[in-house]
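Methods: example folding runs. The two proteins below were folded one after another, and each record is reproduced exactly as written to the output file, sequence line first and structure-token line second.
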Amino acid sequence: MSATQEINNFSFDSFGLIIIDECHHTETDKRYKNALDNLEYRLCLGLTATPPPKSLIFGALDKIYEMTIFEAWKDGWLMCPELHTLELDFDKKAIKDALTGSKPWRDDDIEEAFLAHTAENFELLYKVALELNNCEKTVIYFPTIKLADQFSEFCSVRGVICYSFTSKTKPKLRKQYLQDFENRRDIMLANVLCLSEGIDLPSMETIIIARPTENVNLYKQIAGRVLRTCPGKQVCKICDCVATQGNMLFQHTFLTAYCAPEDCFIDGIKFSLDDTINL
């Protein structure tokens, strides 16, 4: 999209085919519409794992092909995940408005609610990472950089390598962290919105989603990171960290995000969220 600023400098009179990857961004990013309005083309093909209901480019997307996640599991394109939930301690007063739906969730509010029980929550996250995959090949998604940095330090004291991977991480370190993650087993990443889209880490075996989000597409992109296949990969686990108040679930769940029934079966394998981890 950086080329949109130089759109008038293109020497081509027309294009036969334009391909837009991650085309769900066309719903909100006007640069796509501006680019196509200034180009002649015969066909525009959009590719995405999270298609929006509308598009600024097309008005309405013409779906030509769709593969559901359940079909991808059956056909071996994606791994079938083992699903878990872990209830964290949040300061309910600090997020009362978010829980009742009277205001949108803000990451700063979530951080404040999380920090009220930091020691307990970090201990829970550490224990579940250890239980699920021995603190190996695991990525934990946090709502803020402060929490990611603190959890990285928490793990370091315990002799476990957990890199804080955020927008403040320098490019050279990012490259090194990703190489270490791919080449070694004893690595975890504490991530904030840097490993949710446009990144391919197929050796990732476990993710722990410790950040609430109302954005279903973001949730799907996060969950999709661990579903990639990889030679020799046998483990694929998703732990959804939630906080509850009454009957309100403070997080999307994997199955509801993908519009699956409460209990579904793929080739005899049961997928449900009744496997709550109690530590």
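Second run, written to the same file directly after the first:
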Amino acid sequence: MERYKKTDANTIKLIAVIAMTIDHVTWMIYPGYPKEFVPILLHIIGRLTCPIMCYFIAEGYHYTKNLNKYTVRLFLFAFISHFTYVFASMDFVNWKSFIPFYYGSILNQTSVMWSLAWGVVMLRVVNCRSVQKNTVKVILIVLICLISFPSDWSCVASLCILAFGTNRGKFKTQMLWMVFYVAIYATVYFFAIDKVYGLLQMGIIFAIPIIRLYNGQIEPCHEMAVLPLLSAASSDYRVDSICEVTFSLSLSYRHLPRKCPSEFTHYKQGKANHCGLPCP
């Protein structure tokens, strides 16, 4: 599989940013659930984003040098993106729309950032040494699922982060769990919202070969440089694409590693490693 790893993290993140921008602009141009070929194709492209976001949130969990700050930042931007998400949504009525569950159904009450942040908490629960009983951990995971359920992508994004983080280094297992969780989400979408768009959610499988290209390389973080582009592309519609994607992906991998496996951090030609720590 090593021969496929040709793309650094930031390039893949940029693909996610572009894919979500395409998806959101498509919702603006083709509101509702149109069945024409063009909007369906563009929304399938948009399905690339969530798996990439979840994958690099899990990577960020593993490599961040300060897990507490990492978690706080994600929740901070979950709070910020809540207001942009609600304001830009088609269900916005007035300022009371910002109050969760005041209007609308239990679904899509806030942005996917809420689910992403809780995904990190799930990983912390699973890896918590102070909680020894697996039963307690399972109960906590279920509670987190309930808390994150009302967000965009529901608790599925949190569970995908959990699967990526707990099966790190086992690519096939990671992807199988992701497909399983999204299949559940797609089934609910199929019966509760729209049949065609329920099936469309399985477009996440096209993110698998993209993630597979990840070579573990850390490049200078340039996500914020695309803000003007996103602002122009998302004007009068989903400004939350900036908050949800650019912020979350920027946060997911900008910390230096706590440990330095050689396959991730060595410079070429025997130069010093990226984080300055000794490698095994």
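Comment on the second run: The chain has 13 helices and no strands.
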